Structure formats: structure tokens, C-alpha cells
Amino acid sequence: MNLRELEYLVALDEERHFNRAAERCFVSQPTLSGQLKKLEQSLGVQLVERSTRQVLMTDVGLAVAAQARKVLMAAKGIGEIAESFHDVMAGDLQMGLIPTIAPYLLPQIMPGLGQRLPGLKLWLHEYQTPQLLTMLKGGELDLVIQALPIGEHDFCEVMLFSEPFLLALHRDHPLAQQPRITLNQLQDQELLLLQAGHCLRKHALDICLQAGARESKRFHATSLETLRYMVGEGVGMTLMPEMAIPRHKEGQGAIRYLPFVEPVPMRSIGLLYRKGSYRQPLFERLAEVIRQSAGETNGRVSDE
Q: Who has the most CB within 10 Å: 35, 110, 195, 287?
């Protein structure tokens, strides 16, 4: 039994005429008749009563033809699914982002993604790095946007851009009136940091170590916005990635954001996806659009 034989049976059931059914299936009448006999032999039942005047379907023939329609419809659906995957630039995409990137990068890139990849439907997931990597490895996510490097052999890493850190402190702090700050000026200063689990915390700790600063043991924030509120209340200072800084001074309130002189502390932002993914061309195009959108908004320059 094959799909072609089922197609012949459905055509004969609907046409009730061998010649018309054969024309409909673009085969000769002897071919159609012979294939239907072959189908009857394989099933061990008679599907059609043949006479010179008319074609009659047996009861079992009618039942098999009804089921054959469902099978042919299901087969068509499978073909349509496969066809949809021929366009790797379209369809659903499960994308994960870390919390120190998602709320700041998404407003910058979503309009560009909608315009340049209109067939793509993004499903967004925000988790900390360990959970994102587990979901990516398990196939629950297609790709992840997060700080690099990760160093996992199962994943490909695509660099998007490098992002500088700025020092966030209250406007009344003695250092706040400077246009820029050096790492040496953080020596012996106490910085507010995120709690464990955020990859940004590791970046901040590395900067503290380099500058001779220390982290506050009295408080660890769950988000960058919590850190921002604490600094705005004059409780302390922190390191803030560039994308999280308000673009207009009126939105900065009581906080001053000081850029660093060289060497500027940075973090690298990139894409992760499973090695061997058939959607690699989409991920490369996605990376290109993200670089363009983020660069248009912030004036960032890609490292590539």
C-alpha cells in the first residue's frame, strides 16, 4: 500500500468512473485499474465492483476511501510542515536572554527584527545564565543572547558588540562632578553588586579586583533596577552597563553616570546556539540585524 494507490481509490470513489478518475490522477485507465487491483490484493478485500456500465464501491471500499482521505490530508500536512522549514528565516524562534540584557536591548532591536525578518515569530524567555544554558542544551531554546565567553563545547558563540561599564553614583558624591573616572579612583571604594547567579556580578567583581575596590557585604541586588534605586537614594555606587543607562539626562534623576578613561572596563555580548543547527543562516542574519539596530541606537561599533 502506498499514498498513490490511496489517491487513486479516493478519485474513483468521487468520480465513480475509471476514465475520469484516471484523467484526474494524470495516469492511463489501465494503470489506475491495475494499481487498485494491487491495493485490493494487499488488503485482501474487494474495494470496487466493476461492470461495463457503472462503478460501485463496496462497503469496505467506502470505509477504506474515507480513511484514505484522512491519510492523504495528514500526508499533505507533513509536506507543508517540511516546506515551511525550507525558509529558515521564518517560523517560531525560542530566544533566551539574561535579565541584565533583556529589558534594555529588546526595545532597541525588536523594531528592526520585525522589519528585516517579518516571517520570524520570536518567543522570549528571561532567565539567569545557568538555566538558559540548560534550556539551550536541551532544545527548549534555539538561541541565547548573553555575555561571552561561555566556553561550552556544545555551543557556537557569535560576537555582537562590546559594551562599556560606567560608574553610577549619587550626584552629591565627591566624585560625581568629574567628567570621567579612572579605575584607580575606585581603590578602597565599596560597590553595590548583584546577587549570585548573575553573570554581570562576575564582571563587576573582576573590575573591583582590578581597581582595588571591594563589594558591599550588606546588600546584594536582584536586578539592575534595584541597584539604580539604591544609588539614587545615596546608599552607594555601582557599575552599570551602557545599555541600562537612560539616554536623556532628565531620565537620570539624582544619579550621575561617569565613563571610564582607558582602559575602559567592558563586557562582550553575543549569541549562543547549538553546534550543527540547521538554522545557522538565520542566527547569522539575526546577529547582523541586532548589530545594526543596537549600533543605530547607541552608536556602538561591532568588534567584527
A: 287
